[in-house]
Design goal:
By secondary structure, the protein is of the alpha/beta class. It is built from 6 helices and 9 strands. The chain has a single domain, classed as Rossmann fold (3-Layer(aba) Sandwich). Pfam families: ABC_tran.
């Protein structure tokens, strides 16, 4: 049996003077899962994604990544997408997409080729030579997705990736995320407060006051 990519057992996270972000969370993410983590602002859904990504350590319980066969901080294991499409202003879109690969030591020509393939996959192949300030918000978010795709991760974590976008653009971004997760064979977890986004994924987890209240499968 293949180990889950991420498993939380009794996971808790407390900040500062007793502020509880997560409390006794039990869950797992397996290869190929597509999950929406639902809940209002401050419910703990972003904290859960940060735990999955290894960005913060739980203060109680246990988190394991046995199925990743490596560190969750490796972009070839886990790809991160946030609500603000963070691109380096001085670099072209293609250079931004290839950046993690060049940092990892991949030759520039090979990294650029992987970057172009990724931009094509997310539907913005024509924007490789553009600067970030020359593209729209939706196009910038696609470029960020391409940057993740170029690394070919096994788990994609997206934290409110559509919150700053209009409804039509948001729908296209979710379609792109679902398609690339299928193409890569990667699990996808999206934190969102948007019911339309949640309804697009096969499973929905409801988080309230730092607790995982329910896990529903879309039939």
């Amino acid at each position: 049996m293949t180990a889950p990519l991420v498993r939380c057992v009794g996971a808790g996270l407390t900040y500062g003077a007793g502020v509880t972000a997560l409390a006794e969370v039990d869950c797992l993410v397996e290869a190929g899962d597509q999950v929406a983590v639902m809940g209002p602002s401050g419910s703990g859904k972003s904290s859960l994604l940060h735990v999955f990504a290894g960005l913060v350590r739980v203060t109680s319980g246990d988190v394991s990544w046995n199925g990743l066969e490596g560190s969750p901080r490796d972009p070839e294991r886990v790809g991160l997408i946030f609500q603000e499409p963070a691109l380096v202003p001085a670099l072209t879109v293609l250079e931004n997409v290839a950046l993690p690969l060049t940092f990892a030591g991949m030759p520039v020509v090979e990294a650029a080729e992987r970057g172009r393939d990724a931009l094509d996959l997310v539907g913005v192949a024509n924007l490789g030579d553009a600067l970030p300030q020359e593209v729209s918000g939706g196009q910038a978010q696609r470029a960020v997705i391409a940057r993740v795709v170029a690394c070919r991760p096994r788990l994609i974590l997206a934290d409110e990736p559509t919150s700053k976008l209009d409804r039509a653009t948001a729908g296209r971004i979710i379609d792109v995320l679902l398609r690339v997760s299928d193409d890569l064979g990667a699990a996808l977890v999206i934190a969102t407060h948007d019911p339309a986004v949640g309804g697009s994924l096969e499973a929905r987890w409801q988080v309230e006051d730092g607790r995982l209240r329910s896990q529903a499968i879309t039939l």
